[in-house]
Amino acid sequence: IEDNNIGFALRIHGSDTLDKLRVAGDFHQDSTKSYALFLDNDRLIIGNERWTLSEDNYIRFGSKGLYFNNFKLNNNTQALSIVSAETDNGSIKAKFDRFELGSLSQIIETDTQFIRGVMDGFVEFRNLKKTPAFVSDLTIKNAAFQQTPIGDIALKADNLTASKYMAQLTLSGNKNDVHVIGSYTAAGATNALDFKVDITRLNLNTIEPFTAGQLRRTKGYITGDLKVTGKATQPVVVGDVYFKDAGFNLAYINNYLRLKDEHIAIDGKGVYFRQFTILDSLGQKATVAGAVYTSDFKKMRFDANVSTNNFTVMNTTIKDNPLFFGHVLLNSDISIKGTEVLPIVDVDAKLLDGTNISVVLPSAKISTDRGEGVVMLIDSEQVMTNDVNVDSLMIGQLKGIKLKANLEITPRTTLKLIVDKSSGDSLVIRGEGRLSFAMNESGNQNLTGTYYINSGAYKATFQKVVKRQLTIAPGGYITFNGNPTDAVVDITAVYTVKTPPADLLSTELASSTSGERNVYKKPMIFKVLMRMKGELLKPEISFKLDMNEADQNAFGGTVYSKINSLNNDPSELNKQVFALIILNKFIPAGIGTAGEGDGYATAATNMARNSLNQVLTDQLNALSGRYIKWVDLSVGINSNDEYTTAGVNQGTQVSVGVKKSFFKERLSVQVGTSVNVQNNNGEVKGTDANSLTGDIVVEYKINSDGSLRFKAFRENQYEGLIDGSLYKTGVGVVISKDYDSEKEIFRKKTAEEKALEKEQELRDKEEAAAAKAERIKAREERKVERAARKAAKKAGVEYVPPVPAEPVE
Length: 809
Fold this sequence. Notes:
Layout lengths: L4 E9 L5 E11 L5 E5 L5 E2 L2 E2 L1 E2 L4 E5 L2 E5 L1 E5 L2 E7 L7 E9 H5 L9 E12 L6 E13 L2 E11 L5 E10 L2 E10 L7 E11 H4 L7 E17 L2 E17 L4 E13 L2 E10 L5 E9 L7 E16 L7 E15 L4 E9 L4 E5 L19 H8 L4 H6 L4 E19 L4 E15 L5 E18 L3 E7 L3 E7 L5 E12 L14 H6 L4 E12 L3 E9 L10 H10 L2 H14 L19 H25 L4 E13 L2 E16 L4 E12 L14 E9 L6 E11 L6 E11 L15 H45 L14
Parallel strand pairs: 25-27, 26-27
Antiparallel strand pairs: 1-2, 2-3, 2-4, 3-7, 4-5, 6-9, 7-8, 9-10, 10-11, 11-12, 12-13, 13-14, 14-15, 15-16, 16-17, 17-18, 18-19, 19-20, 20-21, 21-22, 22-23, 23-24, 24-25, 24-26, 27-28, 28-29, 29-30, 29-31, 30-32, 31-32, 32-33, 33-34, 35-36, 36-37, 37-38, 38-39, 39-40
C-alpha cells in the first residue's frame, strides 16, 4: 500500500492444492476522487483453468457513478462480458455466453457440487443516472442443484413500465413443465400482485435437494394451477394442487409416506383438505379432513380432524435422532380447533402391539446425587428457547396451546430408557394403562393415570467390565396424580444367583469338619430383590434376599433362616447384596487375609477388596469436601496383586493430594504423596518422614476456558515388581477440545461463537468483581467487629453483636 494504490493477490485452493481461484491486481484513487479496480490478466485462474481478460479492463466508481471498461472474461467457449455506455452512469450490460455456473460455484465447494448449468443471455441496467430500469433474458441449460438435475430454466423480466415489474419463468426438461407469468405493481396498488402459476408437472425429486435432507427417496409429481393476486403483504391465493403417485421418506420420523392421488384446494378464505389420505410404508392410512381458514396466511382458524389406523408414526434409530427413537404404531383420533394464537387440540390415541420406544437420558439434561437419588429437571421452556431455533414470528404469535390427550398403552408396548449410552445401562419395561394429559394456555400440565408394569429388565454395567441384568417383577406400577414429576413408583427388580451357601454360613460352620462344610458347597438359587418405592424423583430403595419356595427347607431350613436374619441386619445385608451382584457369591463373615483359615480367602477376597477401593475412596473424598474448605483434598486407595514364581506379591497404597488454585483459578498447584500401608504378608507398614515421597503438579490455563494449558510435574509412581517406584519429571502443553466428528477439530469459531465467548468473559468479569466486592465488604465488617470487641473488652463490658437488618422484600 503506497501513494493511494493497493496491490493485492488472492489465492484459494482445495485440499488437493489445485487453484480454485487466483486473482491479482491493484486498487487506486485518481485525481477526480474516483476509485478504480484493475485485474491482472497474467494471473487469473478460475476453477484451475486459465482465463483471459482484456488488458485495459477496469471498474471505476465514485461521485460520477459506476463504469465498466472492457471487462471481458474468456475461457475456451465460455465468456462473460460487462460493459458500460460511453458515459458514466448511462447503462451497463452483462452478457453470458455458454458460461458454466460451476466455474464460480466450485470456488466455495468442498466435497459436494453446489450448482451446475450453462447460462446464456443478458441482464441490462438502463438510465442509471435518472430513472433506473432493467431488462433481462436468461436461460440455464441442464441446471442442477447439489448433484440433482432440475432441468432447463428460462427467465425474462423487466421494469420498462414505471413502477411495474414483469416476469416470465419457465422450468422444462427432466420431466418438469412449470410456467409462471405475471407482474408486480409498486407504489401502493390495491392489486399489486397478478401472477398465474401453471404446474403441468413438477417432479418431487426436483424439490428434494432444497429440503435440507428432510425429504429422501422422492418419487411422483405435483400438478395444478394457482392464481396469486392482492397486496404483497396480504396475498390472495386461489387454485388447486394435486399429488400424483407421490412418495417420500420423511427423515425426521424415517417413515416412507405415499400420496396416491390427493388434492388440496385453496381459495381466498382458506386451505381445504377433503379426505386427504397418507399411506405409510405398509399401506396403513392416516386421514386429514377439514380446513385451515385464512385470508392472509397470517391469521388462521383451524377446523380439522386427523385419524390413524395401525399407522406407523415413527420408525427411527439412534442415527436419526440421538435422544429418542423407535417404532411407533398408533390408532388415533385427533381434533384440531382454535386459532394460530391458541390452538385447541384433543387427542384420543392408542399405542399398538409392536411399538417400542427408546429414550436416551442425556447427561447434560439430568444429573443425580448418588447419596440422595435426586434428579434435576430443567425448565422445558428454557430448553425450547436454547436448543431449538424457533421462528421469532411464531414466538410472537403463539401464546400457548390448549391440549387434552387420552393415551391407552397395550401390554406389548415396549419402553426402553437408556441411562448411560457409553456403558449400555438401560431399563426395558412392558406394561399397560391409560394416561390422561392436559395442558392449558398458561402452560400448566396435568398428568393422571397408572401405568402397570408386566415385565422388564434393567441392564447394568459396572466399570464397563461386569455386566448384570435385573428382572423387573410383575405387579409394579407408576401412578401420576397431577404434575408429571409428582409420580409415585413401586417397582421391584430381581437378580437371580446360583452359588453355594457355604460362605454365607462361614461363622456357623467354623467348628464343623471339612466334610460337613463340603455339604454346603452345593450351589443353590438365591434372589436379590431391589425395591424402589415412593416419589419418582426421590424414591426409597431397599434390598432383600430370598430363595425359591422349594429350597427354603433345604438343610433343615438353616440357609433360609440365615437369609431372614440378614434381612434384619441392613449393614450385613448390603454387603452381601453387593457381593452377590458383583461377585456372584457370598462374602464370608470375618474373612481374614490370604493363607488364613481353611482356604476361604481365595481370589474372591482380592476381588472384594479391589471392588471396595472405589467405594471407600468416594466416601473419604465426600467427607473431605464437606469439612475441609479453601483447598481440594483427594484420597485414593490402590491395591496391587502381582503373581510370580515365588508367589503372590500384594500391596496396598494410600495416596493423599491437596490442590489449591490462584489467580481466579488460572494457576493450580497440587501436592500429594503415596504411602505403602500393607506388605506382602498383609502387615501394616510403619511410616516415617523418609517414606513420604512427595508429588507436585503445577498447571496454568493459558486461555480462559482452559482448553490450552501448561503443565509441569514430578511424580512417584509404582511401575511393577521389577521397576518398583520410579520418579517421573516433565513439562508439557495440554490441548483439550470437544468434538463430534474429526472435521470439527480444526474448524474455526464462527462469529456467533466468538460473540458468545465474549459475553461469557464479560459475565465472568462482572461475577468476579461482585465476588471481590463481597470479600472486601466482609473483611471490613470483620475489622469493625474486631475493633468493637476490643473496645468492649477494654471497657470491661460484654460485647453484643449488632442485630442484622431485616431483608427488604
